[in-house]
Amino acid sequence: MPVQWRFGSNNSPHYPFVLSDLEGRAASAAQGLSTSLDTNGLGFDHNPAYGNRMTKSNPRTAARSKARAAARLAAVQALYQHDMEQTPLAQLLHEFHNHRLGAEIEDAQYAEADVDFFDDVVKGVLARGGEIDATIAGKLATGWTLERLDKPMKAILRCGTYELLARADVPTGAVITEYVDVAHAFYDKRESGFVNGLLDSIGKVARA
Fold first, then answer.
1. pLDDT tens-place string over residues 182-206
2. CB neighbour class for 24 (10 Å; exposed up to 12, middle 13-18, buried from 19)
3. Directed axis angle between helix 19-40 and helix 172-186, to 10°?
């Protein structure tokens, strides 16, 4: 059943991000995720909708989770840049590998990311773009199209949908929780709830 949510469109955007603004928000979010994971010692953050899915993890598991969280955030940023500037894939990956992942930009320290995971999400979203967009569009409320969503929102949903379709090794609840966390970096609670509901709807079909 389509998710019944309404928010800004390209015709009247509520969140007119520019790339520099997205970078700043992404850096802050990466630091926040890092702090949260260090404090809680959990494999991934708790989402009340899914309960506690893990007990305290060992340092290696926590580090891997933190690196994947940073990779997801970077993948959303990279796909936003690709959507805005049509940056070729090879150039996009090179830029992030050499100048973004784990780097310090304008006094903001980006968290160390799982590079292989970052590459897989970015490449996977671009390779399966038609399938992913059709999957998302099929869950939007009647009368809404993907084109009406803000570009950062589209990047978040595309990454989450890719993982639900292609990364069976990542639990459904973990995918949803992680991209809700990413959404918190750019949006208020209402839009984060939209991400939660839509990815949950997609997951029920993709992981059936």
1. 999 888 788 899 999 999 999 999 9
2. middle
3. 130
